[in-house]
Specification:
An 8-stranded parallel β-barrel has the order 1-2-3-4-5-6-7-9, surrounded by 7 helices. The protein is built from 11 helices and 9 strands. Strand 5, helix 6 and strand 6 form a beta-alpha-beta unit. By secondary structure, the chain is an alpha/beta fold. The longest helix has 20 residues. To bacterial alkanal monooxygenase alpha and beta chains. GO terms for molecular function: oxidoreductase activity, acting on paired donors, with incorporation or reduction of molecular oxygen.
Length: 335
């Protein structure tokens, strides 16, 4: 096992465009752009947004539109999707959308693809309509997308304009082992949702590395792991900020979805023992504390997983505290 070091590891942002209590999606878009500008100056490599629907606390349902907002307000950071839920869309439409983004912001757009609906089943049916079975054709849909982006498609009867002939990196996203087999077989980079589904993380990345077949897109396997990080100047402050994250995950478990709630002094007054146990399992890849503690834990995580890139999600109620958390993380990754 190689001795990977934080200072040689790329670090990035997953922004779930969280709507906090007392605010609106319009406020969220202002805060997201402010965050993107800050993290760009702190050396973050990419800034991804995720497609979710019918969730009052997530404002990135029109993912490509928000990507354009962030890319247009920044200069160098890569901006993309973590991810676009491809079965929700025609591959041609996604090729056109991301071809447009790449034409506007050349060399800065990533296209991460997932197969989950990003919502509940009823909403998925409303989105997909007659395409509801498209989830079963996910590998074929990814290949269609690659075809639309290829220069060789110029003689086809159906073409993606803009999109054709553009080099837009495609990533496979996953939260289980199914995606690992696909990413390996297609020779594509692999991003794992370890920030909420860590159970199969180590198994999945081992499958991906063992089965990886080099392609025209990628010569060696490349693993990105998304984790939760809530850093502050003291452990106590970080632990208090983290109570907003725990309340959000309580909503996931109970089905009681709310806007992101302010932190509380004692989370044990909010969570039942069962809820706390479930949340701890889902948040196994979560790092909370001061710079020294998070750095120690991240070094251990990197040695265990050997990932190539770490993507950070931070559900923090106060915007300035959120900025500070990302600033601390950048410092510990560069030290």
């Amino acid at each position: 096992m190689s001795n990977k070091q934080l200072k040689h590891t790329a670090y990035s942002v997953l922004d779930l465009a969280t709507v906090i209590q007392g605010k609106t999606p319009a406020d969220t878009f202002v805060s997201s752009l402010d965050l993107a500008r800050h993290v760009e100056s702190w050396g973050y490599h990419r800034y991804w947004l995720a497609e979710h629907h019918n969730m009052i606390s997530v404002a990135s349902s029109a993912t490509a539109v928000v990507i354009g907002h962030i890319a247009g307000g920044t200069k160098t950071i890569r901006v993309g999707s973590g991810g676009i839920m491809l079965p929700n869309h025609s591959p041609l439409v996604i090729a056109e959308q991301f071809g447009t983004l790449e034409s506007l912001y050349p060399g800065r757009i990533d296209l991460g693809l997932g197969r989950a609906p990003g919502t509940d089943q009823l909403t998925a049916m409303a989105i997909r309509g007659d395409r509801y079975a498209a989830v079963n054709n996910f590998p074929q849909e990814v290949k269609k997308l690659q075809t639309y982006f290829s220069a060789e498609n110029r003689n086809a009867k159906v073409r993606a304009i803009p999109g054709e002939g553009l080099e837009i990196p495609i990533w496979i996203l996953g939260s289980s082992t199914d995606s690992a087999h696909l990413a390996a077989a297609m020779g594509l980079p692999y991003a794992f949702a370890s920030h909420f589904a860590p159970a199969q993380f180590l198994t999945a990345i081992n499958i991906y590395r063992n089965e990886f077949k080099p392609s025209e897109y990628l010569k060696e396997p490349y693993v990105l792991s998304c984790v939760n990080v809530i850093a502050a100047d003291t452990d106590a402050e970080a632990n208090k900020h983290a109570t907003s994250l725990y309340q959000m995950f309580r909503g996931i478990i109970t089905g009681e979805r709310n806007l992101l709630q302010p932190p509380v002094d004692d989370i044990s007054n909010v969570l039942s023992a069962y809820e706390a146990e479930q949340i701890n399992q889902m948040l196994a890849c979560t790092f909370v504390g001061s710079k020294a503690l998070v750095k120690e834990d991240m070094e251990s995580f990197l040695q265990q997983t050997q990932v190539d890139e770490i993507m950070v999600s931070a559900h923090i109620f106060d915007h300035q505290a959120k900025l500070r958390s990302y600033e601390i993380f950048a410092e510990l990754m560069r030290d």
